[in-house]
């Protein structure tokens, strides 16, 4: 069990000093690619003035990642990693008898008492007031139960009472109660939304703004509308090969989308995504205005992120069960004391680094169960990133699944799915090919349809002889990362000799 070092700030314990500790407002969207936001993608027409302001007053991290998943519901391991500060193969599932993570029965890899060392438990012991509002389900129930004040409801409707405003109202009520009781304790508020997760039922006026309808007819595509967002720059009408999770709801059973990947469906769906996202922005603004009026905002670290990204037409995919940048990456914007306004850094952070970082910002001891790394040095402008290599996994469909590794400009993705019938390798130079264009993106009709400009070298480079050494290096790096993270599977061209007999069987089996 790996442990993290001590925080760079000294913890304080007496009440007078505790009252000066910073507050934390941790904001989590449900299913949002960073490329939805204009701060990451100038092509986007999504309007989020409060997030833009947050970015202008704080730091944008360009390389924040959700490590991965052993479940089709990527939300579940993601939120376990946020809460526990542990890596993807070292966390439990919601249900005690789940074997989605094959390591769950090993107490050295997945501590049975882990919930005692999660985000709310750590901050409770430090004298913080802790509050949570978020969706119900696909989360870390035992950790969630440790918040002192908790409101759990999945609000994905098109009204204030049944949408994102409901979560904001819970936070505003909580802040009013604190003010009325003259509560001076520092707070940790976990402000989670149920949107823009499907079915992406946007408010009518925002849907109209983005030319979208809450489409429910599986027999026909939605109407075209010039107000709709453009197609993603790396849009494809279908993925070039099966990606390994047949029939999954987020790929084929989303209301309004189903199996459709045509232009009208995708543009309408992005319009709905944007309608939900702009409403989230409005609700964030309400809470930030309240904190400012109460004199709390200047002493509050505000973190905005998402549990993972989303495809919505990119690479011919719809959901979150892939390792392309639009889905592996997450938005990450942080504002607070000591963070330079308008700053930007790569970061190379995982969502599991949140626990260590919040402890560091507040001067708290990081629990020994934590495996994340504080990125406070990045936030304070002392270094550009906290790690050199990033590892990604999707093993929620057929096994072993997908794996990725990134170092510098180079990124490798490997697919070993559908009982060995699909085995593919992709190699990208993200400096030269940031959108991970593939050969189908070069089709002249598609280029005209999307309005993209694709260069000859913007392709999968795995078969290019001039990059053979880079490919070999990245392959070795991936295996090293899989071993370091106790990945219980191996891909078709990797050794299984170091795995146990049980693991070797699992590493070569197909599990649907």
Automatic annotation (TrEMBL):
Keywords: Hydrolase, Transferase
Statement: the UniProt record of this protein carries the keyword Transferase: yes
GO MF annotations in UniProt: arylsulfatase activity; glucuronate-2-sulfatase activity; transferase activity
Pfam families assigned to the protein according to its UniProt record, in alphabetical order: Sulfatase (PF00884)
Chain segments carrying region Disordered: 1-23, 196-254, 490-512
Pro residues composition bias: residue spans: 219-232
Polar residues: bias regions: 1-17
Superkingdom, natural source: Bacteria
Keyword field contains Ribosomal protein: no
Protein name: Sulfatase-like hydrolase/transferase
Origin species: Roseiconus nitratireducens
């Amino acid at each position: 069990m790996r442990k993290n070092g001590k925080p760079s700030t000294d913890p304080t314990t007496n009440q007078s000093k505790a009252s000066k500790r910073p507050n934390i407002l941790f904001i989590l969207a449900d299913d949002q690619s960073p490329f939805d936001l204009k701060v990451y993608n100038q092509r986007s027409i999504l309007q989020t003035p409060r997030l833009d302001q947050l970015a202008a007053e704080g730091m944008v991290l360009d390389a924040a990642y959700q490590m991965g998943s052993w479940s089709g519901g990527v939300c579940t391991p993601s939120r376990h990693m946020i809460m526990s500060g542990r890596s993807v193969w070292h966390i439990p599932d919601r249900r005690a008898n789940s074997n989605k993570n094959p390591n769950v029965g090993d107490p050295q890899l997945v501590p049975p008492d882990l919930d005692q060392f999660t985000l709310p438990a750590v901050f409770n012991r430090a004298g913080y007031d802790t509050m949570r509002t978020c969706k119900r389900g696909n989360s870390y129930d035992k950790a969630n139960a440790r918040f002192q004040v908790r409101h759990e409801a999945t609000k994905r409707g098109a009204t204030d009472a049944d949408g994102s405003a409901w979560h904001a109202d819970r936070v505003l009520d909580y802040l009013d109660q604190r003010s009325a009781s003259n509560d001076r304790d520092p707070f940790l508020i976990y402000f989670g939304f149920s949107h823009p997760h499907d079915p992406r039922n946007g408010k009518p006026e925002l849907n109209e703004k983005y030319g979208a309808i809450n489409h429910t007819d599986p027999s026909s595509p939605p109407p075209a509308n010039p107000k709709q967002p453009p197609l993603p720059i790396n849009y494809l009408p279908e993925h070039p090969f099966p990606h390994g999770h047949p029939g999954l709801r987020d790929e084929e059973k989303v209301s309004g989308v189903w199996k459709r990947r045509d232009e009208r469906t995708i543009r309408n769906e992005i319009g709905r995504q944007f309608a939900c996202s702009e409403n989230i922005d409005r609700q964030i603004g309400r809470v930030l205005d309240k904190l400012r009026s109460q004199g709390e905002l200047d002493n509050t670290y505000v973190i905005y992120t998402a549990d993972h990204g989303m495809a919505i037409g990119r690479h011919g995919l719809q959901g979150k069960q892939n390792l392309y940048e639009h889905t592996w990456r997450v938005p990450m914007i942080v504002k607070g004391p000591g963070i330079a306004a308008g700053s930007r850094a790569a970061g190379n952070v995982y969502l599991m680094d949140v626990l260590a970082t919040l402890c560091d910002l507040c001067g708290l001891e990081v629990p020994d169960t934590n495996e994340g790394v504080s990125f406070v040095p990045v936030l304070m402008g002392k270094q550009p990133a906290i790690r050199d290599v990033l590892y990604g996994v999707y093993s929620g469909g057929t096994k072993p699944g997908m794996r990725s590794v990134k170092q510098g400009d180079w990124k490798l993705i490997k697919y070993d799915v559908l009982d060995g019938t699909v085995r593919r390798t992709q190699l990208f130079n993200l400096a030269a090919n940031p959108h991970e264009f593939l050969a189908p993106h070069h089709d002249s009709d598609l280029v005209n349809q999307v309005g993209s400009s694709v260069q000859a070298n913007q392709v999968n480079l795995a078969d290019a002889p001039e990059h053979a050494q880079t490919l070999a290096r990245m392959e070795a790096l991936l295996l090293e990362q899989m071993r370091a993270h106790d990945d219980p599977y191996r891909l078709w061209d990797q050794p299984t000799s170091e795995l146990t007999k049980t693991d070797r069987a699992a590493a070569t089996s197909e599990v649907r």
